[in-house]
Amino acid sequence: MSEFDSDVPKIPDYTLSEKQFLLSKNLDNAGHREELVKELLESIKEKKLAPYYKYLTSELPEIVRFDQTLYSSLKNENEKQIAELNKKIKDAEEDDETKDEILPSTIRLAEYYTEIIDKQNAIATYKKALELTQSTGSKIDILLTLARIEFFFNDYPAVAKYLDQVKAQIDKGGDWER
User: Fold this and answer.
1) Is 38 within 8 Å of 30 (Cβ atoms)?
2) So what's the pLDDT on residue 84?
3) Which of 35, 65, 137, 171 could form a disulfide with 175 if both were Cys (CB 3.0 to 4.6 A apart)?
4) DSSP of the chain, one letter per residue?
5) Contact (CB, 8 A) for 45 and 70
6) Residue 62's closest CA among 30, 85, 91, 89?
7) Cα–Cα distance, 41 to 56 (Å, whole number)
8) Measured distance CA(27)–CA(160) in Å, rounded
9) How far is it, in rounded angstroms, from Cα 108 to Cα 24?
10) What is the pLDDT of residue 178?
């Protein structure tokens, strides 16, 4: 690993946010705009980003047209994966596992929501994970991920709120030697 590599998942994908920003500000000529839309749609299809597709088409309806067939197909794929991840959590809960044993499955579900850019579900699931974890370092990791999600959506007051919570956790003494 180089000094800049990290084991932190690169989610959400900020290249999508960057392209969306360029489209929303009309900073590019029409030919480049079409290329950006094409690249966004290719990424959405490849990564099966149903929630982001719905968000994008509601934010930029004049640029990215909503296609119900595409959305339904993507959503069905997402729902299969979510059901599988929820089953793992439910199985762990039914087996009377400890919070520490339920936490990895909960974080994996939150990561999946973040991968498909489902903001509300990602945030709600990370907040559940925050309640499950006892480790200050894990809390910091989760709070930083929440800040990254809000940053993707340009919600700077929420980013500041999560960074303040990170600072409070660091002041308590984060366990960074993991």
Assistant:
1) no
2) 96
3) 137
4) --TT--SS---S-HHHHHHHHHHHTT-S-HHHHHHHHHHHHHHHHHHT-HHHHHHHHHHSTTTS---HHHHHHHHHHHHHHHHHHHHHHHHHHHTT--HHHHHHHHHHHHHHHHHTT-HHHHHHHHHHHHHH---HHHHHHHHHHHHHHHHHTT-HHHHHHHHHHHHHHHHHH-----
5) yes
6) 30
7) 10
8) 27
9) 32
10) 47
Q: Is the pTM of this model over 0.85?
A: yes
Which residues does the chain have with pLDDT short of 50? 1, 177-178
Residue 176 identity (one-letter amino acid): W
- For tokens 């989760």, name the residue: 142
Residue 127 C-beta-side C-alpha neighbours within 13 Å? 8
> Which phi and psi angles does 59 have, rounded to 5°?
-80, -35
Q: What is the pLDDT of residue 92?
A: 84
Closest CA relative to residue 93, chosen from 106, 108, 80: 106
What gap in Å lies between CA 32 and CA 56, rounded to an integer?
18
Tokens of 69: 């067939």
pLDDT for 1 equals 44
**Token representation of residue 156:** 């700077």
Q: How many residues does the chain have?
A: 178
C-beta separation of 133 from 111 below 8 A: no
